[in-house]
Amino acid sequence: MTDALYTPALLRLAADAHGAGRLTVPHVTGTAFNPACGDKVTMDLALESGRVTAIAHDTKACVLAQASASILGAALKGADKSAVEALRKEIATMLAAKAPAPRSPFESYAAFEGAVEYESRHRCVLLPVDAVLAGFDAKPEG
User: What's the whole-model pTM score?
Assistant: First the structure.
C-alpha cells in the first residue's frame, strides 16, 4: 500500500466502521457501485421530516470507501438531501482542486488528502455519499 494514500488516520476510520451493518427497518435504501473496481456500498436510512435519524451501511469495497462510509455512519444524522449534495460537492472539490476538507462534522475527510493525487480513487471516496443520495431518491420501503 502507498503510505501517502493509506495513512494511519485513514486506516483508523475504516477500522472504526461506524454504522456498519443494516438497519432492521430502513425507510429507504440506496446502493452505489463502481464497475471499475467492483466496490459496492449499500446505505440504509431512517428519515424523519426528510432528515437522517439513523444510518447503516454494508460496504464491500476498498479501504477508501470503507473509511468514507464510516465517516457518514458517525456524522450524517440530522442531514437532509441538500446537505448531502453540498457535502458531495465539497468532497469532490477537495479531491479535484486540493481544497480544504469539509467543515464539522465532516472534517475527518481531511484523512483523504493523499487521495488527491490518485484521480481514479476519487470515485471510491465518493461512493458512500452517492449511495446515500440514491437512498434519498429511492421510493420509501414498506
Answer: 0.95
Helix (H) or strand (E) holding 60: strand 51-60
CA distance 52 to 73: 11
Domain assignment present for residue 59? The answer is yes
Tell me whether residue 130 is in a domain: yes
How far, in Å, CA of 34 to CA of 119, rounded?
Answer: 14
C-alpha cell at 90: 465539497
Would you say residue 1 lies in a domain?
Answer: no
Q: Give the CATH number, domain containing residue 28.
A: 3.90.1010.10
Count helices and strands (H / E) in the chain: 4, 3
Specify the DSSP class assigned to residue 20. B
Domain count, the chain: 1
Q: Classify residue 37: in a domain, yes or no.
A: yes
Summarize pLDDT for 5-20 with one digit per residue, the tens: 899 999 999 999 999 9
